[in-house]
Amino acid sequence: MRMQNTNKAPTIVEESAEEATKRTTIILEKDERQYINKLINEGKEPGIKPLISKMLNLYRSMMVEDWRFPGEYYFGISRVAFVNIELMTLLIKQVPKEKWRIVGKTMGVAMKVSMETILDISTITVDNWPRVFKRLSVQGWGDFSLKDKYLIVKAPFINEPEVLAGLLEALLGITLEVKTMIPPLVFEVKKTRRPP
Questions:
Q1: What is the CA 20 to chain-centroid distance, rounded?
Q2: Is the same domain home to 47 and 122?
């Protein structure tokens, strides 16, 4: 890496266009390099190359190129905002418990339309679930995995299993039975719907 102490934004300079793997130089401001070194020294990042790779992966995964600042991020037809989990929990608590699954299903229908619009896939097709789970993870909904007939959600954004079950039922076209009441949440997949 070449560093250059100027008042300009970081600059990327292509060093060799002829090589199979192109080398790129990133010129960072002093405070930017200090920040990166601090992350590495504190063990939060293993090195500058993995950090930049992670940044590019996040940029691509969250489609940052489509963001309009401040605070405007659209995923398909839906505007996305970073929301505190406490605010979501407070909102859910205002709904009677017997309606939680219905509210979750309504949310899942909206999420299904948005996700299918942007990813151009059917969310109810089991083969597409890894992409759906990745998208949910990127947006902070939790870490989703399928083990045999069980759907497991680690670090869920919505901690109320009935709400999350409804959301996932509508999004994935399945019927779920709640198996755990605290995270990690475990749902048994009772029935899947085949896409038309």
A1: 32
A2: no
